[in-house]
Write a structure and sequence with these properties.
The complex is a heterodimer of chains A (346) and B (324).
Chain A: H1 2-11, H2 14-23, H3 30-68, H4 71-74, H5 79-86, H6 96-127, H7 130-145, H8 148-164, H9 171-174, H10 185-209, H11 213-221, H12 226-237, H13 239-255, H14 258-263, H15 288-295, H16 303-342
Helix pairs in contact in A: 3-16, 6-10, 6-13, 7-10, 8-10, 10-13, 11-12, 13-16, 15-16
Chain B: H1 3-7, H2 19-53, H3 56-60, H4 76-107, H5 113-127, H6 130-140, H7 165-189, H8 193-201, H9 206-235, H10 238-243, H11 261-266, H12 272-279, H13 288-323
The chains are: A mainly alpha (346), B mainly alpha (324).
Chain lengths: 346, 324
């Protein structure tokens, strides 16, 4: 772009020249200054909201962590404790099942959506006939725009009943401590996968397209078949972008509350393999985010429940902070490496 | 990834067709088909199920507290609530996001520490899950000093109720803020420098150049940003569920009458998203047909907003091409 290259050169003398002439100008610039101060404060305010949220959440969660400490995240005990807390009984909460539910559903969804999403991104960026490209991009945008409660609704009335048919018939006798149902870890993974997929695909398509065409041309000139050139040259070169897409998708998955509260079974339970692999996918889970939205509202007037919910919110916030930071670090590190490797930025 | 991989294929130049070379593209086609099928299934499902549920009576009656689906009313309040929330949160977010976007794009040195800090803050804010915003808002606005934004809660309670349209829109505005700022900043940066130079050469101050020249040129992009923010606000459930309350009705029965507006704004209510959540088989209402109808209307609103954003965005690029 020629404008971008020439712009700094043209703009450079502008500030000194402009301010000098207008500092002596007839017209007062008080109005300008007020407006500029206002937008500067708007910028500082917008940038500091996140501090307010973080400080507030940790401030409210602090008593809980001080009171219960490490066992809050390392032990179980949620559903029953919430009910007891309503009766003003003193209880100790354990968020381990919720952590397990969040981690299992997020990991599962990430695996599924990365595999399907990468195939889909390669299709859109490289393989699809020109006539299909636009419609597919529109479909991905459409998928990204579907509200999570709609995903939850369709999951609940279509996916869950479908999965119920595959629940092993002897599950009631075989698995003693929890009822198995279609509303389960598996349903959560399926619904979540399609929710986060468009975010991964959008980023993946962009980063695949950003790989210089010379890579593919060079590979194919050496006799590589198209698919091999894509897999061996284009995808590796796009890895920083793909990882950024995965991080973006996982941030969404970790924070998803509504859809998972509808399809995941909503029992704070740590799925276990001890009964056998065939029961595992149908075990219910409850995630950090869905526990907040299911319990929140009226229950917040009970101080013990409010503290426990803020404990969950603090854990969620830690997750999303870690993801934001790792995304920055990873992208910076990888893109630096790519520049060293190829002599140009991608 | 290393440059070694690029040289490696030299050794395998034979023209033998490998199984992977055929299976690979097939895999890509299959995944694309899966995604398309899932997308079409969701939309088709809602169109078929929702179309039957959406009648004039459904659109024009308020939700009724009833466990029987036939007498549970319609979605007039949720539709009004959705629009009310969209408008209010846009009003809150607009000045903040526009100011921030102008400052970041026009005044800040991108390498300066303040600019980097603000950007980092916005980036992290964009990653905060909406359910955390919900908890944050509910607890913050339950503090007694915010009683003016929601009713005072129970008789004699020391805390505010913490749930109202005002509370919900402020929290929603913070939630959508980073997304709106990002699109707005891009729109402002996309205005060619020749515009600014031309205006400055005529002796116009920087601020007036921005207001009179840059912002009008960027207006389609700014509009796109606002519309995308509206779509986000319309589609969010967790914030609304926590900070607007789980009740389906407004604070007053005659909510459309002018003298009740203040009470409505300070009272709890519902939007289409919470209506769907409440009416779904997972919620207390358990009236799936109402949920389908609500989802159909919601998808129409969100889809309409997103289409509008695309159309406005397209106009901006064609405009600029014709001018230069």
């Amino acid at each position: 772009m020629t404008t971008e290259e020439t712009a700094p050169a043209l703009q450079a003398p502008q500030p000194a020249f402009v301010t000098q002439s207008f500092a002596r100008g007839r017209r007062s610039r008080t109005g300008d200054r007020i407006a500029e101060t206002l937008i500067a404060s708007a910028a500082v305010l917008s940038g500091s909201f996140v501090l307010l949220v973080i400080a507030f959440v940790f401030w409210y969660a602090a008593p809980l962590f001080a009171d219960q400490g490490w066992p809050f995240v390392s032990t179980g005990g949620w559903d029953g404790q919430i009910e007891e807390a309503w009766e003003m009984v003193r209880v100790t909460f354990g968020a381990l099942p919720l952590l397990a539910g969040t981690l299992l559903s997020t990991t599962g969804a990430l695996i599924v959506s990365t595999v399907i999403g990468l195939g889909c991104a390669i299709f859109i960026a490289e393989l699809s006939p020109k006539s299909l490209r636009r419609p597919f991009e529109t479909l991905i945008q459409l998928l990204a725009g579907i509200p999570s409660v709609v995903f939850g609704l369709v999951g609940l009335v279509a996916v869950v009943p479908f999965l119920t048919r595959f629940v092993p018939a002897d599950s009631f006798e075989a698995v003693a401590d929890v009822p198995l149902d279609g509303a389960s870890l598996l349903a959560a993974v399926i619904v979540l996968s399609f929710m986060i997929l468009p975010f991964f695909v959008t980023v993946a398509v962009d980063s695949l397209r950003a790989v210089p065409r010379s890579y593919m041309a060079g590979g194919m000139a050496l006799g590589m078949r198209r698919w091999r050139a894509i897999v061996r040259l284009q995808v590796p070169a796009a890895i920083p972008g793909l990882l950024a897409g995965i991080v973006l998708a996982s941030a969404r998955a970790v924070g998803e509350a509504i859809a998972l509260s509808m399809v995941a079974g909503s029992i704070a339970y740590v799925p276990t393999l001890e009964y056998g692999l065939k029961y595992f996918p149908f075990m219910p889970i409850r995630t950090l985010a869905s526990a907040i939205v299911e319990t929140g509202g009226e229950a917040i007037s009970i101080p013990a429940i409010q503290a426990a919910l803020f404990g969950l919110a603090a854990l969620l916030l830690l997750f999303s902070l870690a993801l934001s930071v790792s995304a920055r670090v990873m992208v910076a590190w990888l893109s630096k490496r790519m520049r060293l490797d190829t002599g140009r930025s991608l | 990834m290393s440059s070694g991989t690029a040289r490696e294929p030299k050794l395998e130049l034979h023209q033998r067709v490998r199984v992977g070379d055929l299976l690979g593209p097939a895999f890509a086609w299959v995944t694309a088909a899966i995604v398309a099928a899932a997308c079409l299934f969701i939309v088709g499902f809602l169109v078929v199920k929702g179309y039957q549920a959406v009648t004039w009576a459904f659109l024009s009656t308020d939700p009724q507290p009833s466990l029987v689906e036939e007498s549970a009313g319609g979605v007039r309040i949720p539709i009004a609530g959705t629009f009310l929330l969209i408008v209010l949160s846009t009003l809150v977010t607009l000045p903040l996001s526009l100011g921030t976007a102008i400052y970041l794009a026009e005044y800040m040195d991108e390498e300066s520490r303040l600019s980097k800090t603000i950007r980092l803050g916005l980036e992290v804010l964009a990653g905060v899950p909406s359910v955390v915003f919900g908890m944050f808002g509910l607890a913050l606005f339950s503090l007694p000093i915010f009683t003016f934004m929601s009713s005072s809660g129970a008789e004699g309670a020391s805390a505010a109720f913490g749930r109202s349209f005002l509370v919900s829109s402020v929290v929603m505005a913070i939630h959508i803020l980073p997304f709106v700022i990002k699109v707005m900043e891009e729109a402002i940066r996309a205005v060619p420098d020749s515009y600014r130079l031309g205006s400055t050469a005529l002796g116009v101050t920087k601020w007036r150049t921005i207001v009179r020249v840059v912002l009008p040129a960027a207006s389609p992009g700014l509009a796109t940003a606002v519309i995308l923010g509206m779509g986000l606000a319309a589609g969010d459930t967790a914030i609304v569920w926590l900070t607007l309350g789980g009740t389906m009705t407004m604070a007053v029965d005659q909510w459309w009458e002018v003298q009740n507006y203040v009470e409505v704004l300070r009272g709890s209510g519902s939007t289409l998203t919470t209506f769907i959540y409440f009416s779904s088989p997972a919620g207390e209402g358990n009236a799936p047909n109402l949920a389908y109808g609500g989802a159909f209307v919601l998808m129409a609103i969100v889809g309409g907003l997103n289409t509008l954003a695309v159309l406005v965005g397209r106009r901006s690029s064609s405009d600029r091409n014709s001018e230069i």
